[in-house]
Input
Amino acid sequence: MYQPQRALTRIAFAASDRIEAQEARESLIARYGEIPEDEAQVIVALGGDGFMLETLHRTMALNKPIYGMNKGSVGFLMNEYSEDELVERINAAERAVIHPLTMVAIDSHRRQHRALAINEVSLLRQTRQTAKLRISIDGKVRMSELVCDGVLVATPAGSTAYNLSAYGPIVPIDAKVLALTPISAFRPRRWRGALLSHTARVTIEVLEADKRPVSAVADNFEVRDVLEVHISEDRQVSMSMMFDAGRSLEERVLAEQFSG
Output
């Protein structure tokens, strides 16, 4: 027998440090009430894209959908801010389920650092010297030496962020593809990166690490002086973002490909 979906009415509100975000939170709480995050059915995040990522990371263990409203400078992952009919908007919203990347970085002291990335894992040169990197996919060396400012592996959700700024491809949210994108490649100069299966296991080794130190960054978690980094999608972890009807993340990614 069909069971109707329970309406989402228990809402928790989280806001960035921006004054306008904090004021919006207080206004929404006065109107809709305040529920603790661990008891809520949905969490409304007020801020920009950076705060959305922060909220997804912070609440990952709660397994709650996140509905963002823009009160920041960049709002690609956010819905338009409005206090009216919030419960109705949330219940009509479309969901995008995303899986993060797992980064395992080994530093110069042979210590392992593990972190999750919702957008991308980036390797970046630390000094004026260009980085020299060796890239292997599923245990096979695909590029023996890449001379560059860095390289990144982006999820579909992150393909419109740093990856796009580095001239990487925009990836549809349901494509089951990861983008491997160089940052200011010097040699081979014309290499523009690759599209990989979401099951690919990427290993990046730092060559001449003493002379050309490199840091690894998983979203906002940084490890300096890395020797090698292992990157793969973690299908065991799922996160859910909610978007107003007709403005799904899939639609936004598609529209971005036709923007000027």
